[in-house]
Specification:
The chain is α/β, with parallel strands linked by helices. Helices cover about 55% and strands about 10% of the residues.
Amino acid sequence: MLTNPDGVTTAFEPDRLQSRIIQSFLAAGITESYLADDISLAVEFSLQKSKRKEKVFTLSEINNSVVRILKDTGFPEIAAIYLRNNACSKLTITPEFNTIKKLFQEHFGINLNSIDELVGKVISAAQHLNISNASPELFIELAKHYETEDFASEDIEPVSFDSWEQDNRWLVSAKTLEQDLAVSTRNLINAKVIRLIGVSGMFPSVRIFFMINEFCDFHGLTGPLTEMTLMPYLFSAGKAIDNCIATTDLIAAKQANQKDLPIFITIPDMSSFASQMLDASWPGVEKDCREMVTPLCNSLSRPLFKLKLS
């Protein structure tokens, strides 16, 4: 969940975040959209792995995470563009205890006693610097300066990134992965049912596209379909996808020393499948479609990081 500057809580939408990152890359004259995809996935992965009991984050936390990743990977100019285009607030506030405390409670996942101590340090620093009012971001940056291990932070933990270079775009290419797959899995790739994305050098992960309409064509299935009809076929698809995952794990560990990569599966044609094969309307049927592909997900040897239906 996402807390906006006006205090309203909404669902976090990765696609909107990716769109904002892409716009910043394009503004800088960089057209490699996969970079924005990697960054948005990294942010989403960090949120999912957060130690917070309630996965609620502020918009400024999300933006700060994006800016940090952009700077760490050698894109400071894009970080500046993103920050300029996505500033959360132009307001200024005074360094008064309750005001600063409320601000920090929205931005830092630390206990009440620690946050009181942190507020005191920041207010003292503001007085020493003769700051009578400033943007919320300035006080947040001061707080980050004073944060120590004593505060047991539950802030968003950054994903480790290497500086991006064109030559290191892929740690493992899709072609390399495909060569080591089982014959039955390669048949699905040749039929354009499964499409592999190599292991990215920016955000290493297992990324697989599963085309469910092509899958039905491959098996000669026609609509309208029922869940019971699809179940054994989806189970077999899960076995093929698991072969892709296991192969990626093995090669990524051997060639790039990457282990336990997050798994991201996209079914990009689920909406058209729902209309053509289930005689249902999208997105109203999305929840049912997620339940329908449960046999596929359950047949995987490791849990998914994300399943995207569109």
